[in-house]
Amino acid sequence: MALRSEDLSSIAPLTKRYLRIRRSTLNLCRTLEAEDFVVQSMPSVSPTKWHLAHMTWFFEQFILVSHSPGYAVFDQQYHYLFNSYYQTKGRMHPRDSRGLLSRPRVSTITAYRDYVDDHMLQLLRGNNDPEIGMLVELGLNHEQQHQELLLTDIKHVFSVNPLKPALIDSDAEPRPDKIARLNYHSFTGGLHRIGNDTGGENGEFCFDNETPRHETFIHDFRLANRPITNGEFRAFIDEGGYRQAALWLADGWAWVETEKVDRPLYWSEDFATEFSLSGMRELDDNAPVCHVSFYEADAFARWAGGRLPTEAEWELAADRPVVGNFVEGGFMHPQATGEDSTKELLQVYGDVWEWTQSSYSAYPGFQPLRGSLGEYNGKFMSNQMVCRGGSCVTSAEHIRRTYRNFFYPHERWQFFGIRLAQDA
Ligand SMILES: [Fe+2]
Questions:
Q1: CA nearest to 274, candidates 122, 159, 130
Q2: What is the reported pLDDT for 199?
Q3: Ligand 1: distance of its center to the CA of 86 in Å?
Q4: Quick one: which of 339, 330, 357, 328 has its CA closest to 418?
């Protein structure tokens, strides 16, 4: 890589952060072979190579082209190939055909990253334009989102390969055998403030969809102390959970019947093992159940006598330090709590994204970013559900209490899990 070993102590914090995050992307790919970078196993999965190029296109298109006078793009055709969904930027290669791009080669994409990094470093040298600073921060958060997608996508790619390849070696991973008994913590409702303000209280970055911070009424509620485990989900299956229409939303039942769903995405037929980024592994009954759709989460909650939390309830309860099992830990798999206390809310952050019952929509007074970047989040505010808390493949520094992730209710390939709530 062209990210030269400059003296990190002499460069500005944002440049340092840029170098570190861009390098960490490549670090995630260090065990991949060239053939792995190209495969697209389903329409919503993107090949690793496409992610690497698209993250780079983002910096090129939204920063260098508009803020670096005289900048010449690396290759004119990349604008078509690596634009994801920015319609106001022009036409794009179809998402479901990204796996057909045997060219450009991985080595050319690496050269593309080097080229853009060199120009970004030049731009950042001595830069104190707050708009560029904001755009770089957005680009880095975008890169972190794609780091997670890169991992969830390669997991799916490997899962459909009968050889069941592994991205990482998990020998060093602790396998806690303790599990906290499931109980509920009570929260007092009323008028509460949720959401974030860009550059607000702490001046930290947030996405436009987290804004504005606003008042919302929350009823008294109870929230489970930890996510639902594989063992608990196994009981749902054993009691015919997938065969009782009364447990399911109408769309969920249609999905179960059409797709013939009878277990979480990566479980083996005998429920003894599951596929992970370290290959096939024994299913740990104490670890959080993972790779379930919103429909499955909702049906499980109904079976268990609870419901999914709203995102406002979740955010109110999540007022605690952001610690957990994140990608930096290197395990890339949800883990049992390792604690048997029922006094604390456990695994609020990390391990699994927690489905909420809230549909993804605009907060009161929401204003998308100006220009093409307004397409980043706002235009997806229909037919998707909000997930909270990050997962074992999220970067610890990327997640926060107000972070809103969103997916279609049938999707399962992200690290989705379940935390139950109840009315008080
Ligand atoms: Fe993107």
A1: 159
A2: 56
A3: 9
A4: 357
136 Cα to the center of ligand 1, angstroms: 14
Q: What is the mean pLDDT of residues 156-184?
A: 89
Query: Which among 213, 27, 52, 198 is positioned nearest to 117, based on CA atoms?
Result: 52
Q: Mean pLDDT, to the nearest integer, of 90-118?
A: 97
* pLDDT > 90 in the chain, percent: 90
Residue 170 has pLDDT above 90, yes or no: no
CA 326 – ligand 1 centroid, Å: 21
Is the pTM for the entire model greater than 0.90? yes
d(CA 353, ligand 1 centre) in Å: 19
Ligand 1 centroid vs 407 CA: distance in angstroms?
A: 14
CA gap 51, 146 in Å, rounded: 7
Query: For residue 13, with 0-12 CB atoms within 10 Å meaning exposed, 13-18 middle and 19 or more buried, which class applies?
Result: exposed
Two structure tokens written together for 37:
């970078």
Q: By three-state DSSP, how is residue 3 classified?
A: coil
pLDDT in tens, 213-253: 999 999 999 999 999 999 999 999 999 999 999 999 999 99
Distance 383 CA to ligand 1 centre (A): 20
Instruction: Name residue 193's beta-bridge partners.
Output: 215
**Distance in Å from the first CA to the final CA of the chain:** 55
Find, among 410, 408, 364, the residue nearest to 212 by Cα: 364
Q: Work out the angle between the directed axes of helices 130-159 and 106-124 (0-180°, nearest 10).
A: 160
> Token pair of 405, please?
């992730």
> Separation of 169 CA from ligand 1 center, angstroms?
28
Give the Å distance between the CA of 208 and the centre of ligand 1.
15
Q: Over the chain, what is the mean pLDDT? A: 94
In the reported structure, the alpha carbon of residue 265 is separated from the centroid of ligand 1 by a whole-number distance in angstroms of: 24
- Rounded to the nearest angstrom, the distance between the alpha carbon of 56 and the centre of ligand 1 is 10
**82 Cα–ligand 1 center, Å:** 9
Q: What confidence category does residue 197 fall into, taking pLDDT thresholds of 50, 70 and 90?
A: confident
Mean pLDDT of 32-41: 98
Distance 54 CA to ligand 1 centre (A): 7
Helices (H), 125-246: 130-159, 230-238
Q: Residues 398, 336: contact at Cβ < 8 Å? A: no
